[in-house]
Amino acid sequence: MTKRKMDTIIKFLKENYDEIIKEIMDKNIDLFEMLVTTILSQRTTDENTYFASERLFSVVTTPEEILDLDDEQLEDLIKSSGTFRRKAKRIKEVSKILIEKYPKTFPKEREELMNLPGVGPKTADVVLSYGMGKPVIAVDVHVEVCSKRLGLVRKEAKYEEIRKTLEDLVPEDQRYLVNLGFVKFGKNICRTRYPKCSDCKLIDICNFPSSGKQLKTPCK
Questions:
Q1: CA quadruple 45, 119, 185, 177: dihedral positive or negative?
Q2: What is the per-residue pLDDT for 217?
Q3: How many CA atoms lie within 13 A of 181 on its CB side?
């Protein structure tokens, strides 16, 4: 039953988001910039992340240039991301390690990335998926909420269980679609606090439909 449901969801995501997702995946993304941007995105909004990343990478482009900034300069550039002092410290620590351990390459394994300061499972999986095109599913809030509402994973499931369950259900060549598709779907329709259930084309297979009423709390 869950496998048939996943097939229905993949078909829906492909019909609605495949073209825009392919455009995102086809972009040439600098891995260092993606890694730092993902660190900046922790516990803040997409808008704050974008502004901080744009400011930072309009001034620097490499780990060496990051280390050339004094702490106050770096903190000022990323201030909009929130907890900017902690993030600045992590970004400098990561830059130093990349220079020393990966002078001509970049960590390409999940464990290597997670050994970097401030890099957890989600950050590592984002870099692997969006930056390197590896068949992994990064579980952000939209992936978590959508997969729980649609009954693909247990309501109590945490990050690793969600990731492993989804990767077991989704063929490798479709994981980018489910990953970014749920992000798009979650932002536009299956919103965390106020889902547009009346506009949802997956309402018939949803475990938590609001019957047209806006939900005031996440279905998690």
A1: positive
A2: 46
A3: 20
